[in-house]
Design a protein that fits this description.
alpha+beta, 7 helices
Length: about 160
């Protein structure tokens, strides 16, 4: 990857985001999110690029990327399955759901299937306590009130795409 990661329109968006703050460092989270949305993860090279754009040291960016679980510092599968096991989900079968999907796919936490289709991750609260247990897919799709049969349907749907 080179400085060509962002096109002119995206660079203008970054400048607009930077203009909202007295210090460009404050724009780091939105810029990292833009990178992840575009690339699927945040590589060392893209962290260095973000540092150049925002005048922020690489070490600081690495600390941010590895601290926040919303950022991926390595590639994930085509379908990133995040299963909540926090209190409400745990009480309503979150661990059972996680274990079922893990066994079904033959992978453990933060592992990716050999075909690159699925990555599974146990996560803390996804904000769906009333409809627990739940799973988020690719930070966009939410599946709630899950049981093993519904999880099986979801996985089959993704496998057929």
């Amino acid at each position: 990857m080179s400085k060509q990661l962002f096109n002119e329109e995206e660079l203008k968006k970054i400048e607009e985001v930077k203009s909202r703050y007295p210090d460009s460092k404050a724009a780091l989270l939105p810029v990292l999110w833009m990178i992840q949305e575009k690339e699927g993860w945040i590589s060392s090279e893209s962290m260095k690029l973000a540092g150049d754009l925002l005048n922020v040291p690489y070490e600081h960016i690495l600390g941010v990327v590895t601290f926040y679980t919303m950022f991926n510092d390595k590639p994930k599968g085509k379908y990133h399955l995040q299963i909540c096991t926090n209190v409400s989900c745990m009480l309503r079968g979150g661990y059972e759901l996680y274990n079922y999907i893990s066994d079904k796919l033959g992978i453990k936490n933060n592992e990716t299937t050999s075909d690159g289709m699925f990555t599974i991750e146990e996560v803390e609260c996804l904000g769906s306590c009333a409809t627990a247990p739940m799973m988020q897919v690719n930070n966009k799709e939410y599946y709630e009130n899950l049981d093993n049969a519904k999880a099986e349907e979801i996985i089959s749907k993704f496998k057929s795409k």
